[in-house]
Design goal:
662 residues, mainly beta, Immunoglobulin-like, 6 domains, 8-stranded mixed beta sheet, 1 helix, 54 strands, transmembrane helix, cell adhesion, Ig-like_fold, signal, transmembrane
Length: 662
Amino acid sequence: MYYSVPYIDKSIAQTSKLYIRKIMEKHAGTYSCVALISGNIEKVDVTLKVSRDISFDDAPNEQYPNMNSDGPIMCKVSGQPNPDVFWKYKGVRLAGDRYKQDLYGLRIQNITEADNGLYECCAEVESKGEVHCREINVLVRVPPQIVYFEDQEGIASQEYALTCNATGSPVPKYEFIKDVEGQVMFSTARIQVDRDGGQVNFRPLIAEDRGTYKCHAFNDAGESVATAVLTVVVPPRIYAVRNVTQTEGLRTTLVCLTYGDPDPVMTYRRSGLTRTHTTQNNAQEGGRINLTRPGVGELDLTIDPLRWDDSSNYTCKARNKGGYHAWNGSIIVYYVPKFSPDMPDAVFNWAGKARNLTCLYYAEPKPVVEWYRLGRLLQNNETFRIHLMDRNSNLQVTIRQVDEYYIYGTYYCRVRNNIGTSEKAIEMKRAYLPGPPSQATVIQSTPTSIELSITSPPPQSLYGLRLLGFWVQCENRILEFLTSDVTNLIFTIVIRPMSTSSSSLFSSSSSSFLIEYLRPSNTYDILVRARTEMGLGDILRITGKTLDISAPYPIILNSDPRSKFPYEYTVTWMRPETGGLAIREYQFRIREVTVIADTFELDTPIGEWRRRIKPTDISFPSMYYRIQGLNQNTYYQLEVLALNDVGWSLPNPEFIFKTNFG
């Protein structure tokens, strides 16, 4: 301050000097020098002008006016002489009614985010030719606006994020308050509050988290508040199914208890059945079965009256939009023992054989099973053996010849529990060897074979025993045909006596069997007998005659019509009917053809027949032939003929094959 005070120096005679050591703007003005000269007062005025460079006194480079305000954008400028101030935006000088300047800066009417950008505050002293500009980056602050905070729904026991989204600049922060008037929420071990992302993460969500939440979004420009209801869906959980035990004919109720929110839809399903019991179809079987909902979370299945076959597992099922749960319960019905309709009424037996009398029953509670014959309770001995298993009891009866006078007759299976007693009679009948087949007929002959159709003896001639097959004798050769198909009573047998064996046995894997070679033009006596477990039955005698020698029968082809190769095809055929003489050679005729719509049915021949001859070994006649030199992806018609000493066979039935792509 001392150095800024002006002072006068008069140390030199007739001289007066005014010194201002540190000149300031306040020193500007008119100064008068007054002196007394020759008795006269003289005065001289001197004007002092002070010049100062342009200075930006309050013009921050980053400024954040609030949305919809008038600013200002601060730019306070000083200088001497006073500078003129003007503004630029994106390089263009501002003008218009929206823009107002004052001593503190620029005011923009109803400023918005569209006004964001780089501004220049420029100060000019024209007399000095001096201009300075200050760049100011403007970012309008926008108050938060919550755009999403709606009623939400989550499932208990799962992770869930309660989300609040808000717009604003700068990016808003968030606070959450539960039950509106509660305290601000903070993170815990189970709940994480994301104040930056606007989420409350429940890990996991529990039923107690349901309620009304307030989202508070805020930034430097303002705040926004919204409320939403969080609904917590609790998946159903069955916590009890009260199993019941009751006597047949009475009333019982199976109770299923569950919890869940919303209240689950509940049903019952009986084990092994597809039908579901619901409250919509609760009156079933004439009202005998009913479902009721006596309260929230409870479903009662009432059966009145109970039947013995109501004993079962019943699955209680509960479902809501949160999930599904099931729990098995059981109804146990006590009832008088009952016998299965599958239980046989009679069993056939014979001396030297052990057979089971089977008693199939149902009973609850577990019964005592006893066997009686002629009023006497049977015990285990060398004749009787009792085997008790689950829901059945077998009485094994071993018959000796000395027992036959009394052993056949009626046996009783008696089953009793504390509810009652039931008894079932089973007959043990004497078995005999089967009668002869009902019929045996020659249905076809060739020069070397005879084909038979054999019909089983009538059921009464089998004496309750299963037909095992047939025994056939032709000359001194014996064949047996066995079958596991007890319902098939007609069998086709092809007989071609073999020269190397006098007996052959054939299983049920085929309905025909062969004995090679019969003589042409001969009549044969054929003996046929039925076989059961007890043995061979009576003989049925028939005759059969082979045909005269002839040319071979038409060849039967059995190869795949689709060749695996592009330029060749291997044809195979069944064992040929020779006509009674050995086949000496085969003839193959092929020609290109077209087919109907990519089938294997002949449409039009497009080539000439090409013939090939193949001799064959008389002892081992061929059953295949490889045809070469064919075109790829081409359809061919094939005929195969066989030659013996009588002549050529007729061609095989129409056969088309196709070669593969090359």
